[in-house]
Amino acid sequence: MKKYKALRIIRYDNPEKAKNEYEKRINDYCTYKTNVKIHPILRGLRQSQAYELFVVNNTELDMMQETIEENAAIINSMLTKVPGVGEEQYFHNVLIEEIQSTNEIEGVRSTRKEIDDAIISVQNKKAKNERFSGIVRSYLSLFYDDFSPINEVKEIRSIYNQMVEGEIDEDDKLDGDLFRAGEVLIQSNTNEILHRGDNNESTIKNNLALFLDLINSENYPYLIKIMIGHYYFEYIHPFYDGNGRVGRYITCKYLAQKLDPLTAISFSYMISSRKNKYYEAFTETSDPNNYGEGTMFVFQMLKIVSEGQKRLIEDLAEKIDLLNKANIVIDELKGNGLDKRILFLLAQSWLFEKPLFDSEISDTVKESRYKIRKSLTTLTELKYIEKIEKRPSRYRITKEIQQRIIDAPVG
Fold this sequence. Notes:
The chain is mostly helical. The chain has helices at about 5-15, 15-25, 60-80, 85-105, 110-125, 135-145, 155-165, 200-215, 220-235, 245-260, 260-265, 265-270, 275-285, 295-330, 335-350, 360-365, 370-380, 400-405; strands at about 30-40, 40, 45, 50-55, 185, 195, 355, 385-390, 395.
């Protein structure tokens, strides 16, 4: 925000001017007061003085919100140009990035294959207990299920149980009724105390109830309340470990109600690629010299989302262009109608980076296994496709066909 200065910066030049500016901002008719208070952090300790968390809805915030909603409309429109299988495959791939990113931010090691296996296991309703199946199940619900708000504090514990409980070290297991009973510190690599969460479970429960009131309120612009709510959840820090993953998921869940599902489930990936800006925004809001102002935090978070949307739009545009080229190339190849339908499915599989099992091909084209196998054999003999896995079988289009699609003129 080029023209909007943090109160902290104003105070360095003139403490009295900063106090006057604070009074002006918090009492401005454009200001949203959250009805929640924070104790700023100084030298690793929470100050006794509490300030109400507030956001000044200035022109730059208005424009950023408008941009995000316009981008979401563009993404939704672009998704209508992607066949159902391709859309699901693209979601699958973005979901892997999201879960891997949210794990990496918290220092949890995970591979793409582990997450991919968990997604397949959950989607196919296998009894197999894959690692990360809980977090996968949570994120898949954002794509397939209708939105339901979080109304009770105990639901936050349920989200924790499903998403991260199995990844928590024994020393960090919860010891309270629903949340942690003891204190928690967030430290830097040099052991500097960056943040202290609420100091007991009673305070945690009370403040989480205020958090839910905030994110479910109809008294604030949607994106503003979700982003300042995200800060407040991390400020409370209800768990010893897993706060970031649960907090980002809740933000994703609420973003999915307002925006497109791809923007929502890319939240952690967006943050991961701009971690320094993310942590700076937290530190800025907790600075005593900012008197509880969250305007800069909200702006930085919205900027992160907007930039992530641009990446999604560019990526989708490229894939849609290649999809159109694939249609042209496949139309010119040998084979009957079924052959070309299967070939187009496998072209989508290549473009959206998720190989298809034989059973998925059969379910999609609605033909018998005999006809599917016969067509796959024909396409293999023509060197249009090749088998990449056995038991169960997976196929992909050959490098030659990939190159023909890449080289095809734009339609």
